[in-house]
Design goal:
The structure holds 2 protein chains of 2 kinds.
Chain A: E1 9-12, E2 18-23, E3 33-37, E4 44-47, E5 61-66, E6 69-74, E7 83-91, E8 94-97, E9 101-105
Parallel strand pairs in A: 1-9
Antiparallel strand pairs in A: 2-6, 3-4, 3-7, 5-6, 7-8, 7-9
Chain B: E1 3-7, E2 11-12, E3 18-25, E4 35-41, E5 48-53, E6 59-61, E7 69-74, E8 79-84, E9 93-101, E10 108-112, E11 116-120
Parallel strand pairs in B: 2-11
Antiparallel strand pairs in B: 1-3, 3-8, 4-5, 4-9, 5-6, 7-8, 9-10, 9-11
Classes of the chains: A mainly beta, B mainly beta.
């Protein structure tokens, strides 16, 4: 089965840029989606199809995908961005999620 | 706007069947533009996809749960449901229903319910 690998945690200073990676075999050939989940809340879609933002998601959130790594980039990080982030793809009609990354804003 | 709401028992005994329903409001489950899915999250852990259903009734399940899962749809009530049989403590989780956008979003889960906690315990 297909696996997605994310770092357990990423830290970023307030106002700086955070990058969260999602590794998978030839993930660049797949469409990657990213979700933000704050404590006690349901996940929220922040990036779809590698680099597209749903309505209402700030431009500070961006994504890229190439080779074996997809990346979620959060520019000018704010305290409110502190959350768990999950990447997700489809493989053989099965949805696969990464293990999640806890983003801490210092 | 479309909203999803899970409902069902919060406590299920081991070996019994977990049953949950997701009610869709603000839009029709029969529109044909979306798939409807169940996802779960054990306490302190990550997300696990359970399966999806189309309004026509066609389904696809996570192979790891396939033998125990049934997802059904009731278009007259604008609802879809999850049944998970022979539950154990490992099935304790927050269960979410979510909408899948197959076309433009290529399978992103764009709308989620608030989630419902189900505990398996005697």
């Amino acid at each position: 089965s297909y696996e997605l690998t994310q770092p357990l945690s990423v830290s970023v200073a307030l106002g700086q840029t955070a990058r969260i990676t999602c590794g998978g075999n030839n993930i660049g050939s797949k469409n990657v989606h990213w979700y933000q989940q704050k404590p006690g809340q349901a996940p929220v879609l922040v990036i779809y199809r590698d680099s597209n933002r749903p309505s209402g998601i700030p431009e500070r959130f961006s994504g890229s995908n190439s080779g074996n790594t997809a990346t979620l980039t959060i520019s000018r990080a704010q305290a409110g961005d502190e959350a768990d982030y999950y990447c997700q793809v489809w493989d053989s009609s099965t949805a696969v999620f990464g293990g999640g990354t806890k983003l801490t804003v210092l | 706007q479309v909203q999803l709401q899970e409902s069902g028992p919060g406590l299920v005994k081991p070996s019994q069947t977990l049953s949950l329903t997701c009610t869709v409001s603000g839009g029709s489950i029969s529109s044909g533009d979306y798939y409807w899915s169940w996802i779960r999250q054990p306490p302190g852990k990550g997300l696990e996809w359970i399966g999806y259903i189309y309004y026509s009734g066609s389904t696809y399940y996570n192979p790891s749960l396939k033998s125990r899962v049934t997802i059904s749809v009731d278009t007259s009530k604008n609802q879809f449901s999850l049944k998970l049989s022979s539950v154990t403590a490992a099935d304790t989780a927050v269960y979410y229903c979510a909408r899948v956008v197959p076309a433009a979003m290529v399978g992103a889960f764009d709308i989620w319910g608030q989630g419902t906690m189900v505990t398996v315990s005697s």
